[in-house]
Write the structure tokens for this entry.
Amino acid sequence: MDVLVCVKRVPMVGGKVVVTADGQDVDTRMSGFTVSPHEECAVEEAVQITERAGGTVTVLTLGPPEAADQLREMLALGAHRGVLLQTDGREWGPVATATAIARAVDELGAASFPLLLLGNEAADTGGYQVGVRVAHALGRPCITGIKRLQIDGDLLRAGREYRGAQETFEVALPAVVSVKEGINLPRYPSLPGRLRAKRAEITVLQPQWQADGLRKTALRVPAGTSRRAQVLGHGVEAVPELMRVFREIGVLPAARSARGGESGGAP
Amino acid sequence: MLCLLEADAAGIADESVRALALARSLGLPLAAVVFAEPGDASRDEAVAAELAGTGVTELCVVAAAGLAGYAPVAWARSLEQLMGEGDAAAVVAAATDHGSEVLAHLGALAGLPVAASCVQAAPAGPGHWQLVRQRWAGSLLEDAELDADCALLTVAADAVPADAVPADAVPADTVPAGGLADGSVAALGIPASGSGAGSLADSSGAVPVVRRVTPVLSEADLAVVATQAAETGGGMSLASARVVVGGGRGVGGPEGFTPLEELAALLGGVVGVSRVVTSQGWRPHRQQVGQTGTKISPELYLACGISGAIQHMAGCLSAKHIVVVNTDPDAPIIARAEYAVIGDLAEVIPALVDAIRSTG
């Protein structure tokens, strides 16, 4: 079965987010880029499906020319084909993105992709809606946030946890599924995989821009508390202070007069 | 406007209470929507009672043949019909898995944009809204403008207090977290919604009118239906644990977790891990704390050998007390913590375990 997986190029952010001087973007001059975590798992899931059942994995992204790097990273994981919906690098909203993806899938031949996988939400913009919108545009059922996926012929069984209970869904293919990290553990790219990815040809398409009804006007880091933790000590000598703090917080019972040999009674 | 509430026998979900608080801050006439619990008619009266004095004038209970439990498109279709019926200016839901999914479907069905994970919102003219929403699960804020006949908003529950304040009353560069003083609706120039905007209960204590509604649903609307199975196994969940002992790269490998597990057991808590740990395969993903794992809100989060990437902090900043054990005095997590021990967790944690055991 041929599977199409949509991924997004996002900045690699470490200990803090830095915003550009004009307050419009995340400053990525010192950062690399990666595929958003849920989506990496979507690609791994697709590769596992095709390893079991045959077929190919096509990875698609909407982004600037450099997003081809992320496609190649996913090709190195075992995807077979890359498609880039190339933009000029400006930010696309979820409606525009979903419309462009659905159009591209139609152009590539929607019938040839009974299963479309995406990540539940992008790490940066967190819109939680591209997968659902793509599904509506293609007239397919959509299940989201999936942590367990099983394919039985034309039937898809998928599950997730919600408020401590297991939620299961059963839909017939063709379908759209968004998954969450934890559905699997992505493999490390193999060396042959990397070499193949480097040489692979990526199909480039031109998506059509449209303005979304939601417009970002600025980005800013929340003020929060810029504090410095109180250092309780160094190494094991800090243990008595740790105990004191834990008692203050209430996660340890108050200090007793017990010393050494006295065996603890009931707490 | 409409606010979707998730509620069960135990009452209205906390995330929905916070979504309701943000909805109230918009100063518009407000109806709440719940979906009928099959076989539990008393739940609806209990929800109405819980809404007493909140300014919600009507509680719509949605029930339809063939709709038993959670069905995202059916729920969205029902909201779409309620929206149209009352000419709603906004539909609000908590940004839970269900809420986010239902509103995404509603946006697709109704051809409307959806602003996800909002922390503040204010009407700014007919069909025009000003919002603040989360990016990077709250590590970054986005100021945005929304143009829509009806505003579809999901609410980031961890960033909105249970009695939210109108947008104007909050300084532009802070995210509200925890208790805030009541603000004044008058400052926004919006006529007061009549009862209790800005505080959860007003003097009248009016209980909303309960109205049962039956949506018109097609077969396609019911194609995706959730089957629920009971809780898996026993044991404390990471999301609800009172104490979490966290381990990161500094633990060094799967064997290194033993002292952390011992400590967690002594403190009545559970072990949580950073993404480095799960991507190495040292621990299963269900123990991961962070943006793509579980969000925790314990009394105490003891983070050992964790540097403090923003995605991890997004999962633990709701902890009441954060204590760090790290060999690096410049680890980013130290700037987000209350207390720190500079040292090797492989020495400190066993010593701490011994000390706790020897004092009974």
